[in-house]
Specification:
- It is a single chain.
- This protein is α/β, with parallel strands linked by helices.
- The chain has one domain (about 1-120): Aldehyde Dehydrogenase, Chain A, domain 2, CATH 3.40.309.
- It is built from six helices and six strands, in the order αβααββαβαβαβ.
- The strands form two sheets. A four-stranded mixed beta sheet has the order 1-4-3-2.
- Helix 1 packs across helix 2 (about 30-45).
Length: about 170
Amino acid sequence: MSASNIVASMSGCAGQRCMAASVMMAVGKVDHIIDRMATYMKTMVLGESIGPVISKEAKVRIESYITEAEQQGAKILVDGRKQLVPGKEEGFFVGPTLIDYVKPSMKIAQEEVFGPVMVIIRTSDVDEALKVENSSPYGNAASVFTESGGTARYVIERASAGMVGIN
């Protein structure tokens, strides 16, 4: 459930909405969730599950963020660049993209991509994740996926985001 919900939050409106999830703070052993996210993204059909971005300029900008992250050492798990939709070859489509091992200092983690891109920043614990989250100038919302009510409350009390959703 978590994986599909995270991907849906990232990909709705092709990621072009203010409340779209764009950064996942990966705390602890979450590779199984990341694997499920990647699998789910690969089943999404461009033009059906996910629409085009707003313009050619937006497509070029989004794809440049992905390329730069890759050049800086991030690992592209699902690559949405250079996607074509049959019958809509001139459309501005960017497929769902999942990027792991992003560092908080990378441009893709510092700026709003405003596209169907999810970056993963791995942290050692919740406090480190909160430090990264609270240092971002963007923070309309955050979501916590956990089985622990205590962890959820801990994040709610310390996150700088304007709204915090749980599971």
